[in-house]
Amino acid sequence: MIQSVLIFNQQGKPRLVKNFNKTLNNSQLVNQSFKLVQDRNQACNFVSLGDYTLVYRNYATLFFCLVIDSNESNLGILDLIQVMVEALDRLFESVCELDLVFHFDQVHFIVDEIIQGGLVIETNVNQIVNNVNEQTLRRKKSQEAPLIPNSSWFSRLKKT
């Protein structure tokens, strides 16, 4: 089971933290994960943390990390990180750190489309991007809709 999804930059600032295990401390987990992966350029992408394993991948200025238990495949999770990055790249057309900062809601949508409750539910990049675009479109439509529909009593109220 996936315990946590972390994305942070090269300075260790978290850009996304999503825990599926409530017993893990967010700030401690981010700090410890960053310290473990920051200087491992030529090393393996798997770090053992006792009961858990940290699987990570470095893309440009961002570290994508997933904390998993022994029931998950390390290589499968590495592929899942690739799926996540491809989905972000298609959604933002060459994703960068600023996209994660300014469009954090869409980043959460992507993670929610891929992982729910610590379980992988979708790995098809096209399906993920289509679902996120659909959610974004629905959200924009709901924000544009008036809170009070046009009705006779409302129009009379506006005239007075």
TrEMBL record:
Cellular component, GO annotation: endomembrane system
GO biological process, one term: intracellular protein transport
Homology family: Belongs to the adaptor complexes small subunit family.
Highest rank taxon of the organism: Eukaryota
UniProt entry tagged with the keyword Transport: yes
Record keywords: Membrane, Protein transport, Transport
Keyword Membrane: yes
Cell compartment(s), UniProt: Endomembrane system
Name of this chain's protein: AP complex subunit sigma
Gene3D superfamilies the record matches: 3.30.450.60
